[in-house]
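Margin note from the TA: students keep mixing up input and output lines. Inputs are the sequences; the output is the structure of the whole complex. Example:
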Amino acid sequence: MKLRSFLNACLGFAAFVGLWQLATHGNKVGDLPSPWMTARGLGQVAAQGVLWQNIIASVFRVAWGFSLAAAIGIPLGIALGWYPRLRDVVNPLVQSLRPISPIAWLPFAVIMFGGTALSSDLSAIFLLFLSAFFPIVTASTSATASIDQKYIRSARNFGVEGFDLFRRVVLPAALPQVLTGLRLALGIAWVVVVAAEMLGVETGLGYQVMDSRNALRMDHVAAAMVVIAAIGLLLDTGMARVESTILARRGVRRG
Amino acid sequence: MTELGSDTRTKIAIREVCKTFETKKGRVVVLDQVDLDVRSGEFLAIVGPSGCGKSTLLNCMAGFEPITSGSIRIDGVEVDAPSRKRVFVFQEPGILPWFSVWDNIGFGLGKMPFEQKHEIVMRYIRLVGLDGFEKSFPSELSGGMKQRVEFARALAVQPDVLYLDEPFGALDALTRLEMRAEILRIWGETRKTCILVTHDVEEAVELADRVAVMTPRPATVHSVLDNDLPRPRSADQREFRALKDRVFEILGVRRG
């Protein structure tokens, strides 16, 4: 079955590359690049060595933004899920800020962090923080608010209260949905990093896209897109694996 | 029928209990002047039409929900919060999916040395017939086995009272019959006061010493029927059928 789904996936890719080749046949470097030009461009940027620096820069920013968002978003979300009064006060605000694209914050980010050392990194990290923060808060809030009352009641029945209740019941009950939120947030952060790096920074995969565009090297633009897709896929697969490992250990996903 | 409060073995005394809920459509009276005595060590069943508030009554007895007026006293003390002395057994087992059978049964035991805890946990694993499954997770168990874990967890804290809220409702028909026999065996061995809420009249007649029949909402206790049939009981017995018919008659259900 595993081999079969792999072959099916290959079929989809082959069809896509075929159509792509047909559509871009005979194009030159300044036009939409063909698959072959993209592959060649990928070889060139990889050989230049800048590609690796750009990958590291993007992953570094996402890692910081995502970790900060998780560190603040999970506790806040759980608190909002647990205390209805707090939720009534804070959640409408959170939900109103959520639809604002993080990119819209860029001008403010530049003002806030401009002039400091690492200013470009800080403003990109701030945008990534925003992009990951809202999905994490929202998932943690609903995870906690939707915990089956049966579990809470039986814990109280057995005199399990306070931190013990949190550690043994609330956290593990909320965990699956929180993990799903983290995975979603990481995916969004990775999408946003490219846009966040298109202004004001001089490293990262987003910068590489803009820089190649300015040099009219569309093959290098497409090469950067291939790299973005591959790393995005890698991050998501990694998160999915972390998720299933943690859940399997708790027996939730077994059987 | 017995006169209220006349029995010295009264464990739980429910007096003029009213319970109302505030909803968007206004105030809903769920329990209206409920009077009921539960004797120490007896198996009492509460039957009534679905949605009549029998589960609400049980939740109030367990201290999960406050009553609007009246009083519920256990051993003479007003119920105001849940207690380990009175354990609630849920329909869909309330055992925790992220803990093993061992951890679930030890869940309510609080802090104690490992050896002591292990001894208690293993004793109750044996009592419910789950030897060898202590390391299993709930997701690896059948519905009946999960319900056994729930019983073991409840019994491990040595409560006086077990509240059974349609504990077999989520089980298939065969497992349900098996678990009825099982709960009777456990009750026979431990003699806890058991209060069973069910809409299954046959289940109530098979298990209980007395059957309290509730009216539709706003619910009150219509009557309490004594059930002296010797155990094990069979639904084919004439007296069994007669008692069942009596309950159906009070519930206003016409059959056949």
